[in-house]
């Protein structure tokens, strides 16, 4: 039997399983899925869980249950590419013939002293639960700092405002305007939305150090009751430790067929892959579609095409609480209720397609 091992049941891993199961797997292929939690999590909604506006059960799904698939609930601690095996925390080493690495990302603390020790995060379900517990237990009038005004920072700040309007929220951003990677129209709209609700936006900030209850902006100490870090990501440590070519975030350079150069049978999907796009769930799913096609051609000993189609992303959608949002779709900036409705629709469709 040929063994396909998938590390991580995130958006990329789920899309691959969805495309292969139940009847597009050769009879001589068995699939193993390894994940540290026994269900698929909607990572794009972790901000709402952290803020306390959705319960845990609403942002997860059970993994597929089909006979070619076997699930191992464990932590991956290492990958031996040359000997084709995965090292697990509580199980024996798992050998593979084909490997798909979709282990996701971790916070990138940019070497800021104390950031990893004294801040909360939302890069994993475990971290998000800790963040929720910390934020929900704060007394009235407590001060919360959110470091990073990208999509995650903006969404958690707005959602926390709706959940806990009694808190004093400050959002720290390195740029001159929040969401500078999208458009000026969106940035201005979101910045104004925050200002109208009394959320402090600190533009052109530079966090140099974090201590317990204190962050230093340009060297100036500021006291907070909770500090949430959303200022960038890097690849999972297991991937960062691989002896292959990686970028400064630890993401792996790949061939046009999404496999590691020199390892035709090892693919990387999602946040651990070096790609010419910002990491998103949408990108991981598009990658997953192409990986399945490459796998099937290789299983059938068919020649691969000279090139794969260019991945085309539909755009970006973000929320400002339950009634407002923003988006960049087909290079058109959207603000207000429409992008929020669109995002809700995308989430609903995802749940339906994967249930």
From TrEMBL:
Keywords: FAD, Flavoprotein, Oxidoreductase. Gene3D superfamilies: 3.50.50.100. Residues 3-288 form the FAD/NAD(P)-binding domain. Signal peptide: none annotated. It comes from Pallidibacillus thermolactis. Belongs to the NADH dehydrogenase family. Transmembrane segments: none annotated. Its cofactor is FAD. This is NAD(P)/FAD-dependent oxidoreductase.
């Amino acid at each position: 039997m040929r063994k396909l091992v998938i590390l991580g049941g995130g958006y990329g891993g789920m899309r691959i399983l969805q495309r292969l199961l139940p009847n597009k797997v050769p009879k001589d292929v068995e699939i193993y899925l390894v994940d540290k939690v026994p269900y698929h999590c909607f990572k794009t909604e972790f901000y709402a869980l952290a803020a306390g506006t959705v319960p845990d059960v609403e942002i997860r799904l059970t993994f597929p249950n089909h006979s070619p698939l076997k699930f191992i609930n464990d932590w991956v601690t290492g990958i031996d590419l040359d000997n084709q095996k995965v090292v697990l925390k509580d199980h024996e080493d798992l050998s593979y013939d084909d490997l798909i690495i979709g282990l996701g990302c971790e916070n990138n603390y940019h070497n800021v002293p104390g950031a990893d020790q004294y801040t909360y995060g939302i890069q994993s379900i475990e971290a998000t639960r800790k963040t929720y517990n910390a934020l929900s237990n704060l007394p009235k009038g407590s001060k919360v700092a959110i470091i990073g005004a990208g999509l995650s920072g903006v969404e958690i700040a707005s959602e926390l405002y709706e959940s806990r309007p009694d808190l004093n929220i400050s959002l720290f951003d390195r740029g001159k305007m929040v969401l500078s990677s999208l458009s000026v129209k969106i940035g201005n709209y979101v910045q104004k939305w925050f200002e109208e609700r009394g959320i402090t936006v600190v533009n052109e900030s530079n966090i140099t150090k974090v201590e317990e209850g204190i962050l230093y902006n340009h060297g100036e100490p500021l006291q907070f009751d909770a500090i949430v870090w959303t200022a960038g990501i890097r690849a999972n440590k297991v991937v960062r430790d691989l002896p292959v070519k990686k970028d400064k975030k630890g993401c792996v350079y790949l061939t046009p067929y999404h496999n590691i150069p020199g390892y035709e049978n090892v693919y990387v999907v999602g946040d651990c892959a070096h790609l010419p796009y910002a990491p998103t769930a949408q990108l991981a799913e598009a990658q997953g579609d192409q990986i399945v096609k490459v796998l099937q051609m290789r299983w059938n000993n068919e020649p691969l095409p000279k090139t794969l189609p260019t991945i085309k992303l539909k755009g970006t959608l973000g929320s400002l609480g339950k009634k407002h949002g923003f988006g960049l779709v087909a290079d058109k900036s959207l603000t207000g209720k429409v992008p929020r409705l669109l995002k809700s629709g995308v989430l609903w469709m995802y749940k339906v397609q994967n249930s």
